[in-house]
Every structure is written in structure tokens, then in C-alpha cells.
């Protein structure tokens, strides 16, 4: 869903009293850590929105060898998860502008992030929302999976 339609939809849902949770990431190679994290995020509200880094954004953040899977395929995979209600692709390096536009009630990232370092926390907290750093599944990462496939782990 594009950002404008997402804004309208989320505003309507919030108007009906539903709590919107937002998270973001590359989700390049989906693994158990991602699924557990997204399920935990979903339990914090009524609607989970996943901001997905575009291919260009992933390349800038992780290097020219990434993403392994293109955004069109990554968005299909994460949208199919029961915990995820909406997926919105963003092209910037951070989801700051997307968070500003969508105005979620709850902002979450994985446990490897400190609350004060979560991009957009200032926006959500200023609007009276909540920012959380969720559980982190040690050893479960796309980078570890890639290393195992290459035989270097």
C-alpha cells in the first residue's frame, strides 16, 4: 500500500479506537527471529504496520551484495505473516518520514536497539505514544544465515 493510502487507512482505524504498532527493517532473508519479533510486536496493539526498506535503501545500508531478495518478494513474504497487517516500502535510509506521516501509537524495534536510539521515537513520544525495544533472538540473523550458506560459519 502506498504511503498516502496507508495514512488514510490508519487514521480511520485509529479513529475507531484501534492501536497502531509500527516497526521497520530490511527482512532480507526471513528467519525465526523475525517471526518471533513480529509476533511480539503485534501483541502490543491491534494493527501491525511494517515499514520495509526498499532495495536501494538496503544496498546503501548493507552493501552492494544485498538485498538477497528484491523488495517485491520481501514484501510478499512479510505480508503473508499472520502478525503483519500492512507493509509499506520506503526508500530513505531511515523510516523517519514514514513514521512522521503514519503517526503510529506504538513504535518498536528489536532488542539490539536502545529506546532512545530508535528512529522516530521523538515523534511517537511527543504525540503521547509508546516506544519499545523488544526481545532479541541471539544468533538468529540474515547475516548469520548468509555466512552459513557460504560455509564460513
What does this protein structure show overall?
This protein has one domain (19-150): HUPs (Rossmann fold). The chain has helices at residues 3-15, 32-42, 55-62, 71-79, 96-102, 121-126, 142-150; strands at residues 20-25, 47-53, 86-90, 106-109, 130-133. The protein is of the alpha/beta class and 153 residues long. It has 7 helices and 5 strands, in the order αβαβααβαβαβα. The model has no long low-confidence stretch (mean pLDDT 91). Strands 3-2-1-4-5 form a 5-stranded parallel β-sheet.
Describe the SSE topology.
Elements: H1 3-15, E1 20-25, H2 32-42, E2 47-53, H3 55-62, H4 71-79, E3 86-90, H5 96-102, E4 106-109, H6 121-126, E5 130-133, H7 142-150
Parallel strand pairs: 1-2, 1-4, 2-3, 4-5
In short:
This protein has helices spanning 3-15, 32-42, 55-62, 71-79, 96-102, 121-126, 142-150, and strands spanning 20-25, 47-53, 86-90, 106-109, 130-133. It is α/β, with parallel strands linked by helices and 153 residues long.
Q: What is the radius of gyration computed over CA atoms, rounded to a whole number of angstroms?
A: 15 Å
CATH topology: Rossmann fold
* Mean model confidence by pLDDT: 91
Biggest sheet layout: 5 strands, parallel
Indicate the structural class. alpha/beta
Described by its quaternary structure, the protein is single chain
First CA to last CA: what distance?
38 Å
CATH level 1 name: Alpha Beta
Strand order of the largest sheet: 3-2-1-4-5
Q: Please identify which CATH superfamily we are dealing with.
A: HUPs
Order of helices and strands: HEHEHHEHEHEH
Q: Considering DSSP H and I runs of 4 or more, what fraction of the residues is helical?
A: 40-55%
Please indicate the count of domains.
Answer: 1
Amino acid at each position: 500500500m502506498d504511503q498516502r493510502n496507508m495514512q488514510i487507512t490508519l487514521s480511520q482505524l485509529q479513529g475507531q479506537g484501534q492501536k497502531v504498532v509500527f516497526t521497520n527493517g530490511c527482512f532480507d532473508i526471513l528467519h525465526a527471529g523475525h517471526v518471533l519479533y513480529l509476533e511480539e510486536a503485534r501483541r502490543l496493539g491491534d494493527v501491525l504496520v511494517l515499514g520495509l526498506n526498499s532495495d536501494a535503501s538496503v544496498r546503501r545500508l548493507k552493501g552492494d551484495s544485498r538485498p538477497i531478495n528484491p523488495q517485491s518478494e520481501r514484501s510478499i513474504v512479510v505480508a503473508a505473516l499472520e502478525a503483519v497487517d500492512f507493509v509499506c516500502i520506503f526508500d530513505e535510509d531511515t523510516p523517519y518520514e514514514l513514521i512522521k506521516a503514519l503517526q503510529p501509537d506504538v513504535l518498536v524495534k528489536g532488542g539490539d536497539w536502545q529506546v532512545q536510539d530508535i528512529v522516530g521515537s521523538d515523534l511517537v513520544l511527543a504525540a503521547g505514544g509508546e516506544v519499545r525495544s523488544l526481545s532479541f533472538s541471539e544468533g538468529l540473523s540474515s547475516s548469520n544465515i548468509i555466512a552459513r550458506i557460504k560455509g564460513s560459519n
